[in-house]
Amino acid sequence: MNNSKEMMMPEGEIVKAQQDFLSKVYAWMVGGLLITSLTAWYIFSSGFWMQIVSNSILFYGLIIGELALVFILSAKVQSMTTFLAGGLFILYSALNGLTLSVILAVYTSESVQQVFLISAGMFAGLSVFGFVTKKNLSGLGRFMFMGLIGLLIIMFINIFIGSTMLEFLFSVVGVIVFAGLTAYDTQKLKEMYMVQFEGGDVATKASIIGALTLYLDFINLFLFLLRLFGDRR
User: Fold this and answer.
1) CB 39 within 8 A of CB 98
2) Pure H helices in 9-108
3) When you count CB atoms within 10 A of the terminal residue's CB, does the N or C end of the chain come out lower?
4) Is 162 helix (H, G, I), strand (E, B) or coil?
5) What's 203's DSSP letter?
6) 3-class DSSP state for residue 185?
7) CB–CB of 167/188 below 8 Å?
8) Contact 14/193 with Cβ under 8 angstroms?
9) 129 Cβ contact list (under 8 Å, min separation 6)
10) pTM for the whole thing?
């Protein structure tokens, strides 16, 4: 039914529907980033980050909790209420702020702000490219997934040899991978615009999971750029 409706829609209406859907995705994403940023700054300013670093159970518990929330949202979002899906996304954003507060103790505030702005500019450009390009980026998505596997391999090897060169390579590959995924994921989300015609709850939940996807792309892009260009205290 959606396919036939899509075929009957004028090109201008399709573009508007795509823009409307992605605007909802970006609204959730920006909201999540704002929650993460404010939480990280508050935890750092209060000094609670030292409790997180010194308590390995707390630190790894937060990491496991974040991974669990991403898995639950990705796998079960369609069976959740909109309120629960939104609440879990907000909770994940706050938990991520707790763990990311540590980077403010490692890098200078000025360099964190500068790299954040660079990341935002890169993300915006790549996302616009993913939206406007006529080229099918599914091949790029598969290649970037292989790049993720490569990142894990490099990280595992470097645990044992501690190579500065591999550390640099890890960061460079990470930037490339999440830059590519930003463009690919934006195009993939653009193609989901028809969910808007399936009812409010479906569209809202789709925008939440889309926001989570782009949020993860942005955060990882930021962290890898910070590894390359951040000034340590």
Assistant:
1) yes
2) 11-46, 49-54, 56-76, 82-100, 103-106
3) N
4) coil
5) H
6) helix
7) no
8) yes
9) 183, 186
10) 0.91
Question: Do 196 and 20 touch, CB atoms closer than 8 A?
Answer: yes
Taking the chain, what is the end-to-end CA distance rounded to the nearest angstrom?
58
84-135 per-position pLDDT tens digit: 999 999 999 999 999 999 999 999 999 999 999 999 999 999 999 999 999 9
Residue indicated by tokens 């790894």:
60
Q: Is 104 exposed, middle or buried (0-12, 13-18, 19+ CB in 10 A)?
A: middle
What are φ and ψ of residue 232, in 5° steps?
Answer: -75, 150
What are the residue boundaries of the structural domains of the chain, listed by start? 2-229
Tokens, residue 171: 């960061």
Compute the distance between CA of residue 109 and CA of residue 103 in angstroms, rounded to an integer. 9
Distance in angstroms (rounded) separating the CA atoms of residues 215 and 119? 12
Q: Which two tokens stand for residue 137?
A: 């980026």
Number of residues that make up the chain: 233
CA–CA dist 82, 215 (Å, integer)? 18
